[in-house]
Amino acid sequence: MKLFLFLIVFCFTYLSADNSTEFNKKQELLISLKQVIQEEESIAKAYEYFLTNELKRPSSISALLTNDYLGTTFSSTFSEPMNTNYENYVLDNDSYSLNYRLKDNLIKDTDIKSLYESNIYRKKTFYYKYKEKNKIYFILEDNFAKNIYTLIDKSDTKTLINCGDAPKSKYCIKDDHMLIHEANDQSKLLYYYHIDNFETGPIIIINDASLYVTNDEFNSIPTGAALYNTDGVKYIKTSDSIEILK
Amino acid sequence: MFGNIWLSSAFAVIAIFSASIAYKSYSDLQEIREVQENYEIIRDIKILLSKQYNKSPEDITRDEIIAYLPKGGNWEKVLLVNRKNSSTLSTDALVNSDGNIVLNENEKLKVLVLSAKQEKYGNESTIIKEEDIYTFKVGEEEKNHNYKDNIISNRIIITIEILDLNRADLSTTSVNTIIKENTPYTSIYQIVRKTSELDDAFKSRKEDYFRDRIKETLSSSKNRKDMRIYSAVKGLL
User: Fold this and answer.
1) Which tens digit of pLDDT belongs to each residue from B109-153?
2) Are B79 and B94 in contact (CB under 8 A)?
3) With an 8 Å Cβ cutoff, are A119 and B230 in contact?
């Protein structure tokens, strides 16, 4: 009798345990997807912090796997069973982006694909297909990080170079001042400013006023910044031009 | 009296019959109470997630709810129309993939109760009937402009980034395409439809509003990256 009752209870428990397999599998997959997106967000935050700290782009994801950024326990590779669904993290150093995470089996699940590509769990990243390549791009928030990003864009090493060091770049740093030249040979200085003063000025600009209109570098100066040429004449940057202050 | 076999049998049948009717009423009441509770739970989860993720509550999907539910326990039961062990989301879902409640018209009591609930919120338009299935949209009554403002701000940031990525190849046509693909039409409440205005014209005015917001954000920014984009797109926006 006792054995019979035990078998009944066992069968009932077994059947109960089996009834929610579909739900459990779905839930585990969704939670893993949420975790992966949160890791991408963490990488984006670490990337921006690296830019402002080191004044250069990280050469690969391993540059971020230190205590100062992602921490040493963060893993850029997936082990089983996650590696059946997700690609390892690879930083694209041409732009501020990561590779697309989903493997083919997950791409076929339209709900999962749509959730991954949406912005629901994202603040610092977004999905975009650029020139037929699916990528996850970072959103830089800090003005200083955005400035550094554009200043190192033209340099081969993606680093803020000291003025005079090789290979020469049109943008270089000297004594905490950013120097913006007309060309990489650094022969003609267009303007310079203290690295903390870009938003408001003072920015010292070349005397040749014709260049304010023809040279695109002046369009990068923020609206409202105070400018002085080397004779001390004051200008102001509007949204579309540089105007003399009388 | 009870010695009479026929009378005893009759009383036994009546007793069984009454007991089963009473049980049926009781279980109907239980089911109605459960469906009302499930509606409230789903609604509360949608409101919570909408605040967390800046999404309108009626747009929160079932997958987003499942990702939020604690593992284990009986939480999945709120998503299922009946609680039999054989119930699955593909066969017995109470909550469909859009996060709305679906009932067959045969479930008359439950349909009545949820219809009354929706009417109480003043939302008759949130009940849709297609063939024999009623869909009750959950969360519509909680829509407000805060989510929409956040959605618009977020879309402005992303559109600016997309314009930057395409900076080298921009033209009026490509900028128009980017604007059309990214304008959050349903969230732009600042543009109100004029009398007899056609859909295309209404959408176009929303796109113009979105363009202006992008121009305003870029021209007042304080960094090189955004000023560089502004310089490239101002003539094309």
Assistant:
1) 888 888 887 776 655 567 888 888 888 888 776 666 778 899 999
2) yes
3) no
Instruction: Give tens-digit pLDDT for A215-228.
Output: 999 999 999 999 99
CA pair distance B66, B80, nearest whole angstrom: 12
Element (H, E) at B228: helix B224-233
Instruction: Answer yes or no: do A223 and B221 touch at CB < 8 A.
Output: yes
Q: Confidence band (pLDDT; 50, 70, 90) for A17?
A: very low
Q: CB pairs under 8 A, 24+ apart, for A32-35?
A: A32/A82, A32/A85, A32/A86, A33/A112, A33/A115, A33/A116, A33/B67, A34/A121, A34/B67
Say which of A95, A150, A199 has its CB closest to residue B222.
A199
Q: How far is B15 from chain A (nearest CA, A)?
A: 30
In DSSP notation, B142-182 reads G--HHHHHHHHHHHHHHHHHHHHHTGGG--HHHHHHHHHHH
CA B231 to CA A24: how far, in whole Å? 52
Q: Cβ distance B111 to B132 under 8 Å? A: no
| DSSP-based helix, strand, coil % in chain B, nearest 5 | 65, 5, 30
* Distance, C-alpha A168 to centroid of its chain: 25
Type of residue numbered A86? Y
How far is residue A167's CA from residue A37's CA, in Å, rounded to a whole number?
38
pLDDT in tens, A203-213: 999 999 999 99
CA distance A69 to chain B (A): 24
- Find, among A183, A181, A185, A163, the residue nearest to A173 by Cα: A163
Number of H helices, E strands in chain A: 6, 12
Question: What percent of chain B shows pLDDT beyond 70?
Answer: 92
Residues 6 or more apart whose CB falls under 8 angstroms from that of A189 comprise A179, A180, A181, A182, A206
Nearest to B161 among A15, A19, A139 (CB): A139
A139-149 pLDDT per residue, tens: 999 999 999 99
Q: Report CA Rg, chain B.
A: 27
Q: Which residues of A touch B161 (CB under 8 A)?
A: 126, 128, 137, 139
Look over chain A and give the mean of its residue pLDDT values, rounded to a whole number.
Answer: 89
**Tokens coding A113:** 């694909």
Helix (H, G, I), strand (E, B) or coil at B229: helix
pLDDT grade, residue A239 (50/70/90)? confident
Question: Does ipTM surpass 0.90 in this model?
Answer: no
Pairing of strands B101-104, B133-136: antiparallel
